[in-house]
Structure formats: C-alpha cells, structure tokens
C-alpha cells in the first residue's frame, strides 16, 4: 500500500548508501529485473531495443542491455544524449555494457522489436526533447510493445500528468514501491501493467520516506469492521437518514438508502417532502419513511438524538433549502453530495465554518465539476496534483473529501490521502454516485471515523462493480455490495 514521491527516491538511495548498500548494487538488481521481465513476457522478440537517458534510469537500461546480451538475445542500444552519463553509477553501467551505442535519432523500428524505455525516471518535471518525442511517435505508430523502466518517459511521477508526450507502456517495472504518478490518470494508463520489484531497499527506509498518500485498501478501515456484539440493536449499529427530493427526483435518495441498508446500517430512514411521500412509500419496504418539508420539521426530527448521521444531496435540488438543511446538521455526521454541494457554490465558507470545530464529521463527494464550484482556485491550479487538490480542500473544509473519478482520491484534514485503484469503467453510469453516498453514510453511521468510512465506501463501491460485471446499473450494483 506504500507509495513514494519522486523526490523521495534520491533520499532513499542516499540512505541506502549510508547504510552500506552501494548504489550500483541497487542499479544492478534493478536492471537485471528489467531484463528478466523482458525475457519472460517477450521471449519471441527478434530484437530488444533499449533507449537510455543520461541519469540513473539510463544506468538501469545499460545493465538490462548487458544482461540480455549475456542471455543470448539481440540488443540494440540508443541513447538520447551525447557524451558520458551524468552519475557515477550510470557511467559504470555504461562502461560495463558491451553493446555499441547509437544516437536516438537513428532508431528505425523493425518488426519483432521490443522497446525498453530507460530514458527518464519518475523525477522528470520538464517536457521531453524533440528527438525523444519523434522517437515516441515512431514506436507508437509501429505498434511495438514497450517496457518502461521505473516509469514511462514523459509521465510526471508526482501528478501522473503527461509532460508534452509520453510512451505508452505495456509493462512498467518499477522499484521499491509504486509512484503516485503511476496511480493517477493518465499516468496509470501509460504505465500498463505495473510490476514492483524489491531491489534490496530496507523496509525501514521505505516506511521512513513513504508518502502520506497510499493505495486505498481494506487495511485502512479493517480495525473498525469487526463482528457485531451480541447486544447490538438497529440504533446502536447505525441509524442513517437520507433526505429525498421532490416526487420526480426521489429515486436518487432511494438508491443511497438501499445501498446503506445493504452495507450494514441498522436503520435507514428517508426524510421526504409531502409531495414525495407516496412515491417513496410505493418503492420501499425495509427503509423507513418520515415526512420533512421544512426547517421546523427538520428541527423536530433532530430532537431524536439517536439520529446522528445524514445524507443530503442526491436528487435534493439546488438552493436555499439544501443550504439551510446542511447548516442545521452541523453538529451531526453528514455526507454532502451532488445538489447540496452545488448549493454552496456562492458561499462555501458558510459550510466550512459550520463544520470547523471538533472531530471531522463531514464527507464531501464532489466530481471535478462540483469540486470547482466549492474550490475554484484549487481546481484551476495546474501545479497541483489531484491528490494535492484534495488534500488542500480537505484542510480548508475540515472535511474528508472524496474527489471522484476513475482515479478517485480520498483526503482528510490531517493530510492523509489514498488513491483508489479497484474501480472498473462500468461505474460511469447514472446513479452510481448515489450508491457511493449511501455507502459513505452506512459506514459513518456504524461509527467509522470519517476518513475510514470514506475509504471503505469507495473501495466497496469498486469491489461491487467488479463482481457485478458488464451491464452494470446503479440498481444492480447495490445487489453486489458485500461488507
């Protein structure tokens, strides 16, 4: 589950050397792991084409080329730069490699080539040279398989963004731990299948320099998900209230409520306006129903102190009512979704101030458009990664922020973050977000801390979609939730 930032790689390498592990020893293991992966996955290659850069990534490429030659393979080596490599370890690797080196511009793709990209590593922050972009175009046009060393050249290891062109790898062999840019889009797509190789870096060093961002995984919340006690009743195991919109917009609330019940909430109630009572009653059995039209009705509802967790937003409508309801719930646990998020676009500070004190009890679930309405400056800042945008937003709002997408990021005010990687494309369907809101509410109601509740909800959302398979609808998705 550990992820590392690109700038931590050099720190880890330096700490290894201080611990008595030579840098060249790590490079040798890394390069040979690349050659082993190439021989294993592409044993029928007519030629392995190794593209090398000037730094340690290129050094890994020289070691891989040498190992492939020793295995009897045909190898062609092309370098981006003129002159010697820029690091001592890479210079040694180049000196020990018996393969002639040609200029990158001289590479002509041939049928049967397998390309090994060892040009730039995860620390790249600038655009690619024109000669490399031209080479990328040739490789991609020829449809050749590509193995990336550490990360595909041109992918930013911090943000996952493409820096003016990048190779599209079929396999990426990375070292120590995955990089954040390999988890975020589009870097995840350009990485292809990711293989993480242990090159001998001590775990204590990985843990010391690991990012505060990790991969979303059940270990994040398992401590809160034990079996129910023998004296559990429906209120003690999670009473959740979901607010419904009008009669013709009530389906979203029912999706959220049904998902919450499936995820283990002990008692789920839909609070609906008068006009939506009949349509909700006609579609529900185990879900309770309560008439709530205005602030007075809400105040009466809140007199029941057993009701501590709420979902507001799915199909509710944008406007003053959503804002007033959200602020009235400021002392309770709240999942704010969809219309309720947009309702604060003119005065987001009102929401943030209301939840500023005490434990984190607010979960926000915006997609990119909704995020830009609450946090326009963060959304517009292209220097920030998706993780950094979510972290800044979480601190500002004193909330857990689920920044949704194919690479959903969950962040909390303390700076923790996870990237979710188990969600299939089939989740891009109407109502899927309502189901996610219901899952968040269910885990909050079961007394998970807000960050753990959000991480659990996002992971179970993806897990259910994977098992549901093709033809996914939001209604069908609920039947595959297993917690």
Automatic annotation (TrEMBL):
PROSITE patterns: YJEF_C_3 (PS51383), YJEF_N (PS51385)
CDD domains registered for this protein in UniProt: YXKO-related
Superkingdom in the source lineage: Bacteria
Cofactor dependence: K(+); Mg(2+)
Residues covered by the YjeF N-terminal domain: 9-207
Positions with a binding annotation for K(+): 57, 117, 153
Family in the record: Belongs to the NnrE/AIBP family.
Role, per record: Bifunctional enzyme that catalyzes the epimerization of the S- and R-forms of NAD(P)HX and the dehydration of the S-form of NAD(P)HX at the expense of ADP, which is converted to AMP. This allows the repair of both epimers of NAD(P)HX, a damaged form of NAD(P)H that is a result of enzymatic or heat-dependent hydration. Catalyzes the epimerization of the S- and R-forms of NAD(P)HX, a damaged form of NAD(P)H that is a result of enzymatic or heat-dependent hydration. This is a prerequisite for the S-specific NAD(P)H-hydrate dehydratase to allow the repair of both epimers of NAD(P)HX.
Protein name: Bifunctional NAD(P)H-hydrate repair enzyme
Organism field: Rhizobium alvei
High-level lineage: Bacteria, Pseudomonadati, Pseudomonadota, Alphaproteobacteria, Hyphomicrobiales
